[in-house]
Amino acid sequence: MHAEKKILVRFPRSEFSHSLGQKRPLLPKHVWSIRVRLEMADNRRDLALFNMAIDSKLRGCDLVCLKVRDVFAAGRVKERTSVTKSKTGKPVRFEITETTRHSLERWIADPEMLGLEYLWPSRLHHSVHLSTRQYARILRDWVTSIGLEPSAYGTHSMRRTKVAQIYKKTGNLRAVQLLLGHTKMDSTVRYLGVDLDDALTLSEGIDL
After folding, report:
1. How many alpha carbons lie under 13 Å from residue 165 in its C-beta half-sphere?
2. Phi/psi at 14 (nearest 5 deg)?
3. Rounded Cα distance, 47 and 37, in Å
4. Helix (H/G/I), strand (E/B), else coil: 83
5. Which of 123, 127, 152 lies closest to 23 in space, CA to CA?
6. Sign of torsion, CA 171 193 188 88?
7. Exposure pattern of 136-169 as b/e (b: 16+ CB <10 Å)?
8. DSSP 91
9. Do 48 and 100 contact (CB within 8 A), yes or no?
10. What is the pLDDT of residues 40-97, one digit of tens each?
11. Whole-angstrom distance between the N-terminal and C-terminal Cα of the chain?
């Protein structure tokens, strides 16, 4: 008998690993469900953190390092702000919507925040602010609480959530590129997972 021949299919390492590890953005119904649960629990820190993660579109490492002064000045939460990204050293601007401003105001006014510099103080003595690992665990609790599979979501899900909706509604990749702070458009295309079907769907919506 002849030995069976095994056929190995090799994928481009970088492209395959990227798509395999891509975390899903939250859908609007997921955002609403998590937000309602946090409001009902009166979890001020997590509600402000959740809302800010969506609005800011920041990487987890930059989100956890936010300081009160980054978002709060002259007795009120700013409508827009700018922070320097740790990965590139370049500033990125983002909006703070009314819903997020309200949750931030309640959190900053909380007695737990009295006199503190960082927006998300750690409850562990050896750290002045949340670590990215702690943030990832908190996010896992959020998605699990509404019945989602936690392995499909990560901190990048929060970064992608709003821009995925912006792209879906407008098809404006340049706007998404600016909001994410990408220097190259192809990075934005890969990040959103844009393919030909997406382009055709957008094209079908335009009747000339």
Report:
1. 15
2. -70, -45
3. 9
4. strand
5. 152
6. positive
7. eebbbebbeeeebeeeebbbbbbbbbbbbbbbee
8. E
9. yes
10. 999 999 999 999 999 999 999 999 999 999 999 999 999 999 998 887 788 889 999 9
11. 64
Q: Which residue has the tokens 């709003």?
A: 162
pLDDT in tens, 117-132: 999 999 877 789 999 9
User: If you search the block for the tokens 């978002």, which residue do you land on?
Assistant: 71
Which tokens in the block code for residue 96?
């703070």
| Contact in structure between 142 and 163 (CB atoms under 8 Å) | no
| pLDDT-based confidence at residue 192 (cuts at 50, 70, 90) | confident
Q: For residue 197, what pLDDT is reported? A: 62
Pick the residue with more confidence: 199 or 37?
Answer: 37
Closest of 85, 78, 23, 88 to residue 52, by C-alpha: 78
Q: Which amino acid is at 70?
A: D
Asked whether 157 and 25 are in contact (CB, 8 A), the reply is yes
Q: Where are the alpha helices (DSSP H) in the chain?
A: 13-21, 28-40, 44-56, 60-63, 68-71, 98-108, 132-145, 155-170, 173-180, 185-192, 196-204
State how far Cα 127 lies from the chain centre.
22
What is the distance between the alpha carbons of residues 106 and 76, in angstroms, rounded to a whole number?
11
Band of pLDDT at residue 8, cut at 50, 70 and 90: very low
**Cα–Cα distance between 30 and 27 in angstroms, integer?**
5
